[in-house]
Amino acid sequence: MGLPRLVSGRRLPFLFAIFTLAAFTAAGDDEEAYFGEWSNDHGGILRITAETIQLNDDLSMHYDDITEDSDGSFYLLQITTSDEANSFDGKYIRITFGSDVDRFTLITYRTHADALNQRNESSRSEWVATDDDD
Fold first, then answer.
1. Count of alpha carbons within 13 Å of 99, Cβ hemisphere only?
2. How far is the C-alpha of 56 from the C-alpha of 53, rounded, in Å?
3. What is the C-alpha to C-alpha distance for residues 94 and 106, in angstroms, rounded to an integer?
4. pTM of whole model > 0.85?
5. In this predicted model, what pLDDT tens digit does every residue of 78-100 receive, in sequence order?
């Protein structure tokens, strides 16, 4: 008595295609709307990757995305780099998108409670996606 065959040879290519598609779909979800290079009206440049955020030519700072219950219109980031190396006027950053996905408002807060309750802003700035064709 042998073990039953769970998957026939004819179904293997189909299952492989399903698992490949699932892997690509999951990988695409790792790209957040705020990743990329952004500029403001004052000539500032903001670069955000999956692990770091950099303002102008300052050192890159590590951060954690601590967003909860967002519909994708806002994100809450926490700078994890030491305060001495922090280029922002606060440890918590709220990024809010409007109807244009190429623009967002960046607001900094000094405390987690202020960021969650959106009060006592430290700074506010508007950012626009840079042209990738340059």
1. 0
2. 10
3. 6
4. no
5. 999 887 778 898 999 999 999 99
